[in-house]
Amino acid sequence: MSRFTAPTTPEISSREIRNMQRVRDLAVECMVLLKNDGTLPLTEAGKIALFGNGARATVKGGTGSGDVYVRETVSIEEGLEREGFTVTTKGWLDRQEAAARAEKEAYEQAMIDAALAAGQPKEAAQMMMMLQPMTPVALEKITEEDVGQADTDLAVYVLARNSGEGKDRSAEKGDYELSDHEKSALAFLAEKFDRLIVLLNIGGVIDTKPLREIEGINAVVLSGQMGNITGLTVADLLLGRGIPSGRLSDTWAEDYRDYPSSAGFSGNDGDVCDEYYTEGIFVGYRYFDTFNVSPAYPFGFGLGYTDFSMEPAEIKCEGDSLLVRVKVTNTGKTYAGKEVVQIYVSGPEDGGIRPYQELRGFAKTGLLSPGESETVSVCMKLESFAEYSEERAAWYLPAGEYIVRVGRHSRDTHVAAVLTLSQDVVTQKVRNLFSDPAGKVEEIRPGKDHYTAPCEAEEKAAAPKFVIDPAAFTAETAVYPDVPDVIEAAAPDHELTFDEVAQGKASLEAFISQLSDEELAYLMVGNSVDNVGFNSVLGAAAKTLPGAAGETTGKLEEKRGLKQMELCDGPAGLRLTPEYIEKEDGTAIGLGGMSAGDPDTAGIRHYQYCTAIPIAMMLASSWNLELIQEFGDIVGSEMEEFGATLWLAPGMNIHRNPLCGRNFEYYSEDPLLAGKCAAADTKGVQKHPGFGTTIKHFLANSQEDNRMFTNSHISEKAIREIYARNFQITVQESQPMSVMTSYNLVNGTHAANHEDSVTHLLRDEWGFGGMVMTDWLTTSDLSVSLSATSELKYQKSDAAVCVRAQNDLIEPGEKADFTRILEGLSEGVITRAHLERNAGNILTLMLRTHLYCSRSYNETVPGKCITFE
Ligand code: BGC
């Protein structure tokens, strides 16, 4: 029987139509209204003068492995036309298209020439394009004639930015800054048109000063990159078919230099090898508030079409929990809307190193009509207010006052309660795991001059007071078990197959004990083990599911009957080769995406068109966990259809700096928001029995330039409170099936080789029960040769040390990984016990996947909520 099961008819499927509609129904809620003088929503679809680099060349999501191959992408121009608008600036749009095309062709040719000049095959240009993505700058001048032809008083300007893995953005004009052309075009349009709406088709923060300074801009919307139907979602926004109720998931600074990491970020200081996280825990609003720097738009900010009042309805502090119930009323007269209740807590002010306030919970209302109210409840675990102390090697709640604040965004909160704790309480005792052989990174320290919310003193005096009972907490002490002994299970005489294990006829231990060292080593290495060079590179290394980025070994199939897990990228949907040809010899070649097979090859054509959903930054902007779960469900339904066992998503690294090229793939600067979003996404996917997520990139991966060889120097406190905290929340609340380590080094050790994080933090402290895999090619010589940096200070990670760290699966897997594991075994770097332990992780997971089981993973591995419900 053929293993290729994707449909063989080219017509659009009912699933595609259904999922695009589902995206459409949810998308506008994620958008953030930054300014509106009443121009939005429009009353009807009429004539529109459409300009800007994203009008026709709309960006649906970023580049690299985060790109999803779709049947069609509806540009904003097309979306507006389909929904009844008449776009009257075709002349300008045609000129712009020609200029952009010429720029793109020149860039692609330059990459091919560079690949050939470096003695690489032509295909290497694809990888180079990933490492040096194009920053399109071509923009046609808007003339008086264009304005004359527009024949309308309404202009929409679509400002787009694109970025992706392998390359950080720049703080320059045309990227973070608006280009001179964009600024003058906006000023010109503001003068010529009565109404000017600016749509930000972007995936990361930009400078908004010109948008706030140019007079005559009536509305500004972070409309984002919403997947393949972005154009339709914009039409819905303009026509008021959906109400934007998004809130920013990052602080948008007045000036790029206001971000505390800006001076040293990535190549800004000329050094892409060592990154010093000198701001420590002061990331995003934690910095802006504590160091009293005013942002352009605060974290959590977003407007609506109506106003809301917010009144605490009930506050209860009992035992180890705090309940805050808030009544929200739509006080407007015309429009319905949704409001986000954000709860921040300020820890005791005793000179300790802690932020002015931290987000500890949030809830979004349903759609409230004018006059309508809803009371939302947020129940928080007091333990989640704990901070990390390196001196104590513990999480603890310092004695003193905890001020609970309720509000709309980080700069608009009101004191709702004051909790007092009479003594320090240790909530978890652990080991320090993150010392840096290069010495402790020197961190900034806050002074007394933090931001203070207006009326704070009066509100504090009037607020209800509660006493936290120290006896309500039991300090847990983390246990770090040794590597288990080599299995001594009584195994039957015959060679066991994995089906016998799955059917309960043999134990997993017996099966593992029968595997030879070679079989175990194969299990630890992805199925690209026989491929060489670019076959295994291009994010489409799987043989069984064309376009999947990788798969587990096929080497144990014949003798042991072991099936393969298919690993497919995301996060903005499922990334598969859209079409492929199944050849007579039983293999397949991909067409499109990263695969450039010959379309005339004889065989059966299969079609795997998937849905591109909004980028993670926009999902987070919804602040609606149910909505994010629904997006996860959309992806999960497509995973089921195509047999994609693990989604290589969600991405969830912290937005440390706006210039990280992959911020669009990640949620937020805040670990609680990011952790909750990834948990919701995971729950949506893992509703589908046997299919799961791979949260990535663990750990401290905030930079793309020199991403495989950059060393993040970070304090233990900042790792635990910020960069690992998001992962902890997701692991403990949703038990994702898998975790992917990152390319970078953490305090001198490759994340892929970091036993302290992969074994001791993730598994021993947090109780992660799934599988860990590497990011692609982190152990490969190819990564060294493809590195954009000629002088490498640090080397690639080591496959044998991956095994020792309990990084179970090396992807996409190369012969050299297999050889190195066996070499490590003979050298004593690892023992058979390490191999068996990791095999146990991989095979236990496999038993819970669709390949062997029809139950939901979350039924078998329940999580525990550590933050709020
Ligand atoms: C990316 C990962 C991705 C993998 C497989 C890597 O380059 O960093 O996020 O999952 O490729 O395509």
How is the secondary structure organized here?
Elements: H1 14-30, E1 32-36, E2 47-51, H2 76-82, E3 86-87, H3 90-117, H4 124-131, H5 144-150, E4 154-160, H6 180-192, E5 195-201, H7 209-213, E6 219-222, H8 230-238, E7 274-276, H9 285-290, E8 308-318, E9 321-330, E10 340-346, E11 358-364, E12 373-381, E13 387-389, E14 394-397, E15 400-409, E16 412-421, E17 425-429, H10 456-462, E18 465-468, E19 476-477, H11 498-502, H12 508-514, H13 517-523, E20 550-551, H14 557-560, E21 566-569, E22 579-582, E23 588-592, E24 595-596, E25 604-607, H15 616-621, H16 625-642, E26 646-648, H17 671-686, E27 692-698, E28 711-713, H18 716-723, H19 725-734, E29 738-741, E30 745-746, E31 749-750, H20 755-765, E32 771-773, H21 781-786, H22 799-805, H23 815-827, H24 832-847, H25 857-860
Parallel strand pairs: 2-3, 2-4, 4-5, 5-6, 7-28, 16-18, 17-19, 21-26, 26-27, 27-29, 28-30, 29-32
Antiparallel strand pairs: 1-6, 8-9, 9-12, 10-11, 10-15, 13-14, 14-17, 15-16, 20-21, 22-23, 22-25, 23-24, 30-31
The protein binds beta-D-glucopyranose.
The site of beta-D-glucopyranose (BGC) has 9 residues, from loops.
Question: What report would you give on this structure?
Answer:
The protein has 869 residues and is an alpha/beta fold. Helix content is 28%, strand content 18%. The chain has 25 helices and 32 strands. The strands form seven sheets. A six-stranded mixed sheet has the order 1-6-5-4-2-3, with helices on both faces. Strands 20-21-26-27-29-32 form a six-stranded mixed sheet. Strands 11-10-15-16-18 form a five-stranded mixed sheet, with helices on one face. Helix 3 crosses helix 4. The two termini are 47 Å apart. The site of beta-D-glucopyranose has 9 residues, from loops.
